[in-house]
Amino acid sequence: MKAPGSESNFTGLPKRKEDIPITSKVSSKEMQEHIDLVRTNFQYVFKDIMDLDQFEENMLFSDPISKFTFFRGYQFNVQFLRYFLAPIYELHEVRQAGENEILVKWSWTMNFWWNRFNPFKFIWDPRLVFSGFTVLGYNPATGKWNKHVDGWDCLEDQEYFSVEGFSYVMGQMLQISKPPNRVTPEFMILKKYKDWEIRRYKPFLIAEVDSAQTSFEEAEETLRDYFRGMNTEDKYISRTTPLFRDSNGMLFFMVPGYVEERNAPAPKNEAVKLRTHPGGWYAAGLCGGIPSDKDIEKQIEFVRARAKEEGSQPHADEPWIFARYNEPKWPRGPFRRNDFLVPIKESSIELWRGVPFDFIERIVDQEV
Asked: Parallel, antiparallel, or unpaired: how do β-strands 88-96 and 321-324 relate?
């Protein structure tokens, strides 16, 4: 650590990314080369280039539940993640954080490879989802990496060993809700917290029915008929999940394999309409069970409140969405999955909001 009273190496990252462009504050050509490497190949640690040509023998790796102070331990940890959990990264932003440190914002998903042999996979198919940041440091004398410290957005306590972090991991591993193995609309998780997350959905084609003139059950059955072959091509279309229901009373499924309405089989029933859902940004909460209308409204208000607390601004003029992944009556209780989606304004979303800059400053100033 720096001596008391000495100047910190921390650059003082802005709370809003617009204040300083990503490429500013780059102090040297060598720093720019390291930033470019991370931007173009952030998954370098999960490939076969991990050797002493890129890393110092004495290096620091730490996250809330693991820590190593030598390269071989770091290498073992990375290879374990690579072969047993198959991480999939989403890189969001890279910028300089100190004289020889880089700050990376990311999200990732890990799936257990052994789960393909899991006899209980129909109800228990765990995966780990995180969002957070990484401080990467390098030795300017050698150009080699000597520091890799991770933090998670969902935690207050980022220091190793974090009981809070361990509890969070175990909670995800013991999650027993299981959606059907069907195509689902694609989305990216920008931020993952303990009880909610921020997602961005890509646009997708939907078949929808207005339930205002009928019951939800009848509207759902009308939609199912379209997928069973009640279309101009008499074509069976694979069912997708979830069934979406918005606050305007519209029920809709994603139509798989088609991007535009004009290419998809037209419905025979005039009550069924095809259109492209624009996707967009949503605050999302999850729970099991078969929620009543009152339960749904309560969960929506919970998610909306969480988004406001974080600083994201919900859309007042766009409908919220309830997403039911399982069949109406099976499975029961906690084995079911439901999502509660509140649309939020893109202009209010801030990638770096809530990042613990005091913790990052300590890591930047820490000697290896």
From this structure: unpaired
Give me the DSSP letters along 59-128: EEEEETTEEESSHHHHHHHHHHHHHHT--EEEEEEEEE-SSSEEEEEEEEEEE-GGGGG-TTTTT---EE
State how far the Cα of 162 lies from the Cα of 160, in Å rounded to an integer: 5
- Fold for the domain defined by 17-176+352-365: Nuclear Transport Factor 2; Chain: A, (3.10.450)
**Computed from CA positions of residues 117, 192, 55, 3, in that sequence, does the dihedral angle turn out positive or negative?**
negative
- Exposure string for 145-182, b = 16+ CB within 10 A, e = fewer: bbbbbbbbbbbeebeeebebbeebbeebeebbbbbbee
Q: What residues form DSSP beta bridges with 128?
A: 110
Q: Tell me which CATH code domain 203-277 carries.
A: 3.20.80.10
Tens digits of residue pLDDT in 63-90: 999 999 999 999 888 888 888 888 888 8
